[in-house]
């Protein structure tokens, strides 16, 4: 056999091996998806939850709606907490997906490889009649999160429009028409962000007019839900607006800025009592920033004129002068490279 024929044989064998390897790789079943499929047909024994299994004194809702319980929770206790928290609104697809995101994350951390079985058991105890639908939704959510993680870098490199187009295509493929309801809050937040961008880009409009533009935009986006959304997210809405008008606020005199901040807060529905509290807080913040600027100037002056132990002694003195009981904390912060009041001030926020 000549060299050319041998080379062709090796190339052919290599191609076959690549095809076999590729076929194996692309037809592999994700073990998590396989587990979901196996458990779909499992019949769960109905379990009646006893309210006495939960010590209310140890249960509370933490940041971002996370369930916090002082002690280890059994699946039965977790089911009872979920029923209490979501039971009255569990028919809403947005509530369902939000609950499942948090629950799946917690169960993966707590139960390891058993998290899918425990998930099914909890859903059956917490929401009898809906457990099959919610369990299948959990599987779709797992697939969606896997897609996002696998494609994170590629999605990040896309334009906003192209990224949203692809993400929504995947969502509709996995969740059908329910996807719109599941991510309705996200769509509304995107619309709010667009209003804020328009406000930030429009440099010629006075802040008072921008407040009206923002309030009108929120009402159009949230419709009948506007009042409840404002009640629940007033602080978030207000800070989002203040962040995009910082250039306007920075260019104002203290008196004009004070009046403008008052108008912004009125526009967010705050009453006279709240306005007075915020005005008092602004005064405290102003004093704190004034002290910070004075400290910064003195610190730079000392550093330029002194060195060694004398420099350190003088720096200790001005820290005590401006920060009192916090002086040691400030010293440690500066040793680590962090200096207070070096960043640009965010008026109405800090």
Describe the structure in your own words:
The protein is built from 17 helices and 2 strands. It is mostly helical. The protein has 4 domains: 3-40; 51-182, no CATH class; 184-270, no CATH class; 272-350, no CATH class. A two-stranded antiparallel sheet has the order 1-2. Helix 11 (207-222) runs parallel beside helix 14, helix 15 runs antiparallel to helix 16 (308-323) and helix 16 (308-323) crosses helix 17 (327-335).
Task: Please name the defining characteristics of this protein.
2 strands, mainly alpha, two-stranded antiparallel ribbon, globular, 17 helices, 350 residues
Low-confidence region ranges:
14-27
The structural domain count equals: 4
Provide the β-strand percentage band: under 5%
Shape: globular
Q: What is the number of E strands?
A: 2
> What's the gyration radius in Å?
29 Å
Summarize this entry quickly:
With 350 residues, the chain is an all-alpha fold.
What topology does this entry show?
Elements: H1 3-27, H2 31-40, E1 59-61, E2 67-69, H3 75-86, H4 93-111, H5 115-126, H6 131-150, H7 152-156, H8 160-175, H9 178-182, H10 184-201, H11 207-222, H12 226-244, H13 246-250, H14 254-267, H15 272-305, H16 308-323, H17 327-335
Antiparallel strand pairs: 1-2
Helix pairs in contact: 2-6, 3-5, 4-5, 4-6, 5-6, 6-8, 10-11, 11-14, 14-15, 15-16, 16-17
């Amino acid at each position: 056999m000549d060299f050319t024929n041998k080379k062709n044989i090796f190339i052919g064998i290599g191609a076959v091996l690549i095809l076999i390897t590729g076929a194996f790789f692309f037809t592999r079943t994700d073990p998590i998806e396989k587990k979901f499929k196996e458990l779909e047909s499992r019949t769960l024994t109905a379990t009646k939850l006893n309210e006495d299994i939960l010590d209310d004194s140890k249960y509370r809702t933490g940041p971002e709606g996370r369930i916090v319980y002082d002690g280890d929770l059994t699946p039965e206790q977790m089911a009872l907490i979920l029923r209490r928290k979501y039971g009255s609104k569990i028919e809403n697809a947005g509530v369902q997906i939000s609950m499942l995101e948090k629950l799946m994350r917690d169960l993966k951390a707590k139960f390891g490889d058993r998290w899918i079985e425990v998930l099914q058991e909890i859903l059956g105890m917490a929401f009898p009649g809906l457990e099959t639908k919610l369990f299948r939704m959990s599987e779709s959510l797992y697939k969606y999160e896997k897609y996002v993680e696998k494609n994170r870098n590629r999605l990040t490199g896309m334009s906003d429009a192209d990224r949203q187009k692809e993400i929504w295509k995947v969502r509709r493929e996995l969740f059908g028409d329910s996807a719109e309801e599941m991510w309705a809050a996200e769509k509304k937040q995107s619309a709010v962000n667009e209003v804020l961008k328009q406000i930030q880009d429009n440099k010629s409009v006075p802040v008072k007019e921008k407040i009206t533009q923002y309030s009108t935009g929120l009402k159009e986006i949230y419709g009948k839900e506007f009042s409840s959304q404002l009640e629940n997210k007033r602080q978030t809405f207000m800070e989002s607006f203040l962040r995009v008008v910082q250039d306007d606020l920075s260019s104002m005199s203290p008196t004009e800025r004070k009046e403008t901040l008052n108008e912004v807060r009125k526009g967010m529905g705050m009453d006279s009592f709240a306005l007075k509290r915020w005005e008092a807080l602004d005064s405290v913040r102003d004093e704190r920033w004034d002290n910070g600027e004075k400290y910064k100037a003195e610190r730079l002056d000392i550093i330029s004129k002194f060195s060694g132990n004398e420099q350190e002694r003088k720096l200790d003195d001005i820290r005590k002068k401006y920060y009192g009981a916090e002086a040691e904390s400030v010293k440690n912060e500066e040793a680590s490279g962090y200096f207070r009041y070096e960043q640009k001030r965010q008026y109405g926020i800090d």
